[in-house]
Amino acid sequence: MSRPGLIPNPAGPGSSSEPVPTAPARAFRGAAAVLTPARLRQLGVCLALGVLAAVVTGPGGDSVHPFRALRRSVIDPRIGIFIGLAVGLWALLIAAARLRPLLAEVTAAARARRRREPAGPSRPRSGRRMPPSA
Q: Which is more confident, 108 or 11?
């Protein structure tokens, strides 16, 4: 009997390995890895900063109607720009966290390669070759 979200294993019905997840099941697993409580808290902070930026850069209030400026800042369509920037910042934070180990690995490989290479002939800093000594 097959379960939803799984396709039979291509190795055949007699194999002892588990069924292979379908593409939607893999995508859900990937989304679940991104939407951890810490990431959702980070998204909330980014959204709060976006709303705060919209309020700070919005129209000013007066002493008679102090909250009118707050309402006009939040209801104004330009808040979508600030929310979009906040979500973009959150996506950038996620991408940076995922790329950090890859960049560390590339950097370590480059440093190891630089240590192994012998030093080449020295040149002046100007890039010009020195005339041969006679």
A: 108
